[in-house]
Amino acid sequence: MQICLRDNPKISGSCQVSGALTLHASKSFGYFGVEARHFLENEKKQVQRERCLLLDRKKQMEKELAIERREHVLWYFPFIVLCTLLGIGLLALCIVVEPQGPVSSVGLSSAVVVLLCCLGLCGSNFQIFGARFNSGLLKWLAFHAGSAFFFLAALGAAAAIARYIFAGYWWAGLSAGLPCCCISGLMGLYFSRTSLEENIKREEDDDKQSVAERTIVFHGSILEGKGPCVSSWPGKYESAWDVLVTGSRKGNVSAAVVFLPEGSEHFGCHDPIPEEENLEGSCWCIPVYGEQKRWGCRWWTKWMNNIEEAVRQGAELEVYFFAGMVGKGKVENFSMAGKEHLRREAIQGKLKQFLKSSEFQAIDRGIECLWKEPRSDGSSQYSREVHRLFLASLSEEDRKLLQASEGLGNSQKAEVAWLERKGFAYTERDVSAWLA
Length: 436
What we know:
Layout: E1 2-5, E2 8-14, H1 32-96, H2 102-130, H3 136-166, H4 170-193, H5 196-215, E3 228-232, H6 238-249, H7 285-289, H8 298-313, E4 316-321, H9 334-348, H10 350-356, H11 358-367, H12 381-393, H13 396-405, H14 410-422, E5 426-430
Parallel strand pairs: 3-4, 4-5
Antiparallel strand pairs: 1-2
Helix pairs in contact: 1-2, 1-3, 1-5, 2-3, 2-4, 3-4, 9-14
Keywords: Membrane, Transmembrane, Transmembrane helix
Transmembrane segments: 73-96, 108-129, 141-162, 168-192
């Protein structure tokens, strides 16, 4: 009898069976039990490492968010407070000063309109930047202080206009009254429709986006010289990707790869294909994915530019494959990349239907105990078993197509095919080198 580990078929064992025997996987099949235990211990270490790295990334993000908020609270908010107090002081001066003639009345009435407009902006910014305070009480005070300051400014503008009218310059007062009424109405509508919770949520999202632009978005960085340059990377290895990006930003790693996540400036942007490339499609999404994608293809344009720069520098282009799968997962050629991508997507689309099937629901009860925490490649014991069951449910043709595609990520397949189309030499590497 022979057995093997499903997660790693290379780990196997056999034994001679004669008669009725009780067999133990840990003892009866030679070194199988020892090797399987080592494999599971190693996977447990990977899971723990990923958990720690995830916590580190979360802490780093929280640290960056705290810095972002502190910057706004310490610098921008005091500036807004100063501008607000200065504006109210100048408005009070406009109330106190009596017009000395037609020219001065026009000047004062114009100043009232401008100051009311500025104080409206200060009031809204009071609420915006106040939402970044750590204290809930301070957020509440800043939110209501913004509308209170504008209400006070509107009363001051009304008092100034009334003073000009009673001073005999009614036309100057009325000319300022109309725009002041419009400004007061618009700002009143704004303050009435803005809630504290919405303000806090919006500012938190803005801060996270700002931090993401600094820490997550990556445009690539080509170092001078003929050293190695990471030209294609499997995105599912997130922790290793963080190491790569950190090294690149410190100037230690040359990388042509690009990452523009959702919410970043260039996410969703599409770039046309130059005529000299003789490729069909309105943008690069078509040859790469077979259809336009919501994330766009601006990343592809940036990646190509980085590759061209690396080639000019004489760099050694490196393509990283999944662990233990160097050389696998390539597409036939670049012109087939989009079509093959659509074919794989169509097959993967059957997964949802499979997960809802009664066949899977019955099996799922038996695999619920498997680990669901991810290891370095983003997969878990549970997700890999689900994938195996899904492959088993497919036709032989579909199953072989998905199995043959393993080794490179979806975008990587097009990247490697493009390097070959352009005749750029590259070195095949195993991503395991970054997982230590």
